[in-house]
Specification:
By secondary structure, the protein is mainly α. The protein is 69% helix and 0% strand. The chain is built from five helices and no strands. Helix 3 crosses helix 4. The radius of gyration is 12 Å and the shape is globular. The relative contact order is 0.15.
Amino acid sequence: MNAEYKLNETEEAIISYIKDNQEAVSHMSISKLAAKTYVAPNAITRLCKKLNYDGFVALKLALRDAHVNDQRGSD
């Protein structure tokens, strides 16, 4: 999640929540994340596309991969 994208306040809040809860978000439904961040699910979908993911599932897979790689690096 790079800062090179122009993000609005809502998108910044979603990203902040995701960064603070990466492992949990990687197992959440889009509806659950929407509820946790007080937005509609389509706001999350738009954010994912803005960040060049195909959708929320692709973002979750990237979070899981990052988590696995972090665990391997700390071994």
